[in-house]
């Protein structure tokens, strides 16, 4: 009965209500991820040690690789499962869910081991200086130990939405991230553990978040499964998940890589520029994370419509979501721009780092008002199973366009050129996204029966 009620959200609930029902919990979950991402830097900033802020900025993109890989399985699994449910293939959906779980465990263990073995090489690659080396190493060594739990938490905060349980999907992230935020001031400031305390709080938060999702399935209230008996590579389970998940999460993975490249280039200008860039990216992330949550929230609705060939409803959901996304991004960007100084001052007290951070943040905010549109279109493509198109867009935003722009603009403009590379890549990628969506949607809708 509960699952049947959840399916009504996809098939018959009024579009605005269905979008809000799915998107609000997803946005709330991403808001908690945002708070979680801000917490370490914020409370480390209260030590008034800009070197520790720089160390966290150096370590964060490396740690985000775990989250990105979890998103590969989570976003890919959500797309495949939501379409399978729309087609009535419930057993296949269970197998996909189990595949995602045990892949998180295996990949998490392997990745954690490799990072611990090659820790010194990683620190040299990200541009750690003599002053930040031991600080960044302490943080990374601790957080790396919870690799499998990070993957599970990020995977299932997506997957559970595929069966219409957006509230439960949000709850796991809420519990883990809230616990991390509570523990940060206690361990960083109260116990005086500084950056080590931030790392320990992160580990505990991720373990609790993953534990919530595992218990959700073990209680038997889900129509999906994480039982190892349901794990299989047959029936194109693995390839179907990765075909969508890799292009979808490649943007996040490349974002980590690009941040590592930026930090290594910024290192030429001193540790304060690294600390400033880390904080500036936190400012623009406020709009980015909420917009990402909106896109992820509407993806299961769109995926169900694709599977059930409800193209009329698909168009209505997409049109409403795009309008809402643009309005939301405009408001968030305006707030961040107006209060840039106040936001930056919460993280940095060093005068040089503060000035750099304000300048960098305002450059990055020039295109953030388009984030909502970008993420809704990306998720629409993923919902349609458009793996190639998603791959092209994500490669463009964080790789093909961004990395050459990074080095070209650095040569032309110096330090600020490194910052302007992201807005340039954002703008070109959004144009690509719109063009590719129009192309693939026309092709799919012309070869399928259009229903209301």
Give descriptors for this structure.
18 helices; 0% strand; 452 residues; mainly alpha; single chain
Structure description:
The chain is an all-alpha fold. It has one domain. Helices cover 83% and strands 0% of the residues. The chain is globular, with a radius of gyration of 21 Å. The two termini are 25 Å apart. The model has no long low-confidence stretch (mean pLDDT 87).
Name the beta content range: under 5%
Query: How many strand elements?
Result: 0
Total helical elements: 18
Query: Which percent range fits the helix content?
Result: over 70%
Structural class: mainly alpha
pLDDT < 50 runs, ≥5 residues: none
Integer average pLDDT: 87
* The number of domains: 1
Distance between the termini: 25 Å
CA-atom Rg in angstroms? 21 Å
Largest sheet properties: none
Shape designation: globular
Topology as a string of helices (H) and strands (E): HHHHHHHHHHHHHHHHHH
In short:
By secondary structure, the chain is mostly helical. It has one domain. 83% of the residues lie in helices and 0% in strands.
Task: Lay out the secondary structure.
Elements: H1 2-11, H2 15-45, H3 50-86, H4 90-117, H5 119-126, H6 133-144, H7 147-159, H8 166-190, H9 194-218, H10 237-266, H11 271-308, H12 311-338, H13 340-345, H14 351-364, H15 371-383, H16 387-400, H17 402-413, H18 415-446
Helix pairs in contact: 2-3, 2-8, 2-9, 2-11, 2-12, 3-4, 3-6, 3-7, 3-10, 3-11, 4-7, 6-9, 7-8, 7-9, 8-9, 10-16, 11-12, 11-14, 11-15, 12-15, 15-18, 16-18, 17-18
């Amino acid at each position: 009965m509960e699952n049947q009620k959840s399916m009504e959200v996809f098939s018959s609930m009024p579009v605005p209500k269905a979008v809000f029902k799915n998107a609000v919990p997803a946005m709330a979950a991403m808001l908690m991820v945002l708070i979680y991402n801000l917490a370490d830097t914020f409370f480390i900033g209260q030590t008034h040690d800009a070197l520790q802020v720089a160390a966290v900025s150096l370590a964060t993109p490396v740690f985000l690789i775990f989250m990105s890989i979890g998103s590969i399985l989570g976003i890919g699994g959500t797309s495949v499962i939501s379409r399978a449910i729309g087609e009535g293939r419930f057993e296949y959906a269970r197998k996909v869910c189990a595949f995602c779980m045990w892949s998180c465990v295996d990949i998490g263990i392997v990745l954690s081991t490799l990072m611990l073995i090659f820790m010194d090489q990683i620190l040299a690659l990200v541009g750690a200086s003599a002053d930040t080396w031991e600080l960044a190493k302490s943080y990374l060594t601790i957080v790396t130990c919870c690799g499998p739990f990070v993957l599970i938490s990020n995977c299932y905060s997506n997957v559970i939405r595929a069966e219409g349980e957006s509230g439960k999907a949000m709850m796991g992230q809420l519990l883990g991230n809230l616990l991390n935020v509570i523990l940060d001031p206690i361990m960083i400031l109260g116990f005086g553990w500084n950056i080590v305390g931030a790392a320990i709080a992160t580990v505990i938060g991720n373990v609790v978040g993953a534990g919530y999702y595992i218990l959700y399935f073990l209680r038997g209230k889900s129509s999906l499964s994480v039982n190892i008996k349901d794990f299989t590579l047959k029936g194109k389970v693995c390839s179907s998940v990765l075909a969508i998940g890799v292009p979808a999460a490649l943007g996040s993975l490349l974002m980590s890589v690009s941040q590592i490249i930026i930090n290594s280039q910024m290192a030429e200008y001193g540790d304060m520029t690294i600390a400033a860039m880390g904080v500036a990216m936190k400012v623009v992330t406020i709009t980015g994370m909420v917009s990402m949550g909106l896109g992820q929230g509407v993806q299961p609705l769109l995926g169900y419509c694709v599977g059930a060939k409800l193209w009329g409803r698909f168009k209505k959901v997409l049109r409403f979501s795009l309008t809402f996304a643009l309005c939301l991004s405009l408001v968030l960007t305006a707030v961040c721009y107006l209060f840039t100084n106040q936001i930056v001052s919460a993280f940095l007290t060093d005068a040089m780092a503060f000035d750099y951070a304000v300048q960098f943040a305002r450059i990055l905010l020039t295109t953030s008002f388009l984030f909502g549109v970008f993420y809704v279109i990306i998720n629409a493509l993923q919902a349609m199973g458009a793996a190639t198109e998603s791959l092209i867009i994500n490669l463009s935003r964080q790789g093909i366009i961004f990395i050459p722009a990074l080095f070209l603009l650095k040569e032309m403009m110096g330090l600020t050129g490194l910052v302007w590379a992201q807005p340039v890549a954002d703008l070109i990628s959004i144009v690509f996204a719109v063009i590719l969506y129009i192309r693939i949607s026309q092709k799919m809708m012309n070869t399928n029966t259009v229903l209301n």
